[in-house]
Write a structure and sequence with these properties.
single chain, alpha+beta, Cystine Knot Cytokines, subunit B, 3 domains, four-stranded antiparallel sheet, 7 helices, elongated, developmental protein, platelet-derived growth factor receptor binding, cleavage on pair of basic residues, secreted, Sperma_CUB_dom_sf
Length: about 350
């Protein structure tokens, strides 16, 4: 294991560096405070580590049983603002098991300091957490243990610096999918129309084998939707994807007032309203990287509808009645785009 020998060395020294000396003369404005009742560090305090080269952090006493009632927070800050920080978990990983698949008691979590997004929270020992990459030059790690059932070996995280390929516009697009930050990977996944395309992207060398495994009805891997629904076959993921497309941002029937639509307040039309195709729905799964998306037309056609037109006669009582063709816009295709970027 590359670099794993660093984990487990000087554990007590690291714990002392984070918690501070035990002397009662500590500066209360700069040192973390320890609760006498529970021995838990104030989670508002964090140990800032300036990152100039590769290194590692770990739970106290790693790879042995970590102490109870502990809260430790590290914030890794790279000196170079144009680099990312990559976190790789040591294969020796074990914390208190989750309850109902939720890490409630002992856990380690990784957070993006720029927006407070929690990239992941892990506990138990069934699997090693995946690799994490920061969005910028900082990343935060938090370790929590309660007063019951400490486990071993704890955790060890190796951190390395990554230099973006394009420094003028950092982009992780050249990284393999498994190395992308979760939000970037989520945007990439959203762009595929079929599960076959998605699996080919994720595993280009063995996508056919992975696809076969995905649909193989192995009892241990069946989801709750399969078991509780008593379905005779595995759910068609492509159909689910298509349903989202059909019922999200799509052309749908809208009734429009002809007077308002044509801006003809001097004329009466019958029928007063007609049905047209207009874009509607929501953009909850918009794959654009923006704060707000909206459903807009990408293909518009003009169609003529024959209606009865009633217009006042000039200087004469009564109405002039005639059949006339009125042009109305119909939206043929729609898409979710960033609000404010709907032109061109």
């Amino acid at each position: 294991r590359t670099g794993s020998s660093a984990c487990g060395k000087d554990a007590e020294k690291l714990l002392s560096a984070v918690l501070g000396p035990k002397s009662a003369e500590n500066d209360t404005d700069t040192k973390p405070q320890i609760s006498r009742e529970q021995g838990v560090q104030d989670p508002q305090h964090e140990k800032i580590i300036t990152v100039t080269t590769n290194g590692s952090i770990h739970s106290p006493k790693f790879p042995h049983t970590y102490p109870r009632n502990t809260v430790l927070v590290w914030r890794l800050v790279a000196v170079d603002e144009n680099v990312w920080i990559q976190l790789t978990f040591d294969e020796r990983f074990g914390l208190e098991d989750p309850e109902d698949d939720i890490c409630k008691y002992d856990f380690v979590e990784v957070e993006e300091p720029s927006d407070g997004t929690v990239l992941g929270r892990w506990c138990g020992s069934s699997s090693v957490p995946s690799r994490q990459i920061s969005k910028g030059n900082q990343i935060r790690i938090r370790f929590v243990s309660d007063e019951y059932f400490p486990s071993q070996p704890g955790f060890c995280i190796h951190y390395t610096l990554l230099v973006p390929h394009h420094t003028e516009a950092p982009s992780p697009s050249l990284l393999p999918p498994s190395a992308l930050p979760l939000d970037v990977l989520n945007n990439a996944v959203a762009g595929f129309s079929t599960v076959e395309e998605l699996i080919r992207y994720l595993e280009p060398d063995r996508w056919q084998l992975d696809l076969e495994d995905l649909y193989r009805p192995t009892w241990q891997l069946l989801g709750k939707a399969y078991i509780h629904g008593r379905k005779s076959r595995v759910v068609d993921l492509n159909l689910l994807k298509e349903e989202v497309r059909l019922y999200s941002c799509t052309p749908r029937n809208f009734s429009v007032s002809l007077r308002e639509e044509l801006k003809r307040t001097d004329t009466i039309f019958w029928p007063l309203c007609l049905l047209v195709k207009r874009c509607g729905g929501n953009c909850a799964c918009c794959h654009q990287s923006c704060n707000e998306c909206q459903c807009v037309p990408t293909k518009v056609t003009k169609k003529y509808h024959e209606v009865l037109q009633l217009k006042p006669r000039t200087g004469v009582r009564g109405l002039h009645k005639s059949l006339t063709d009125v042009p109305l816009e119909h939206h043929e295709e729609c898409d979710c785009v960033c609000k404010g970027n709907t032109e061109g």
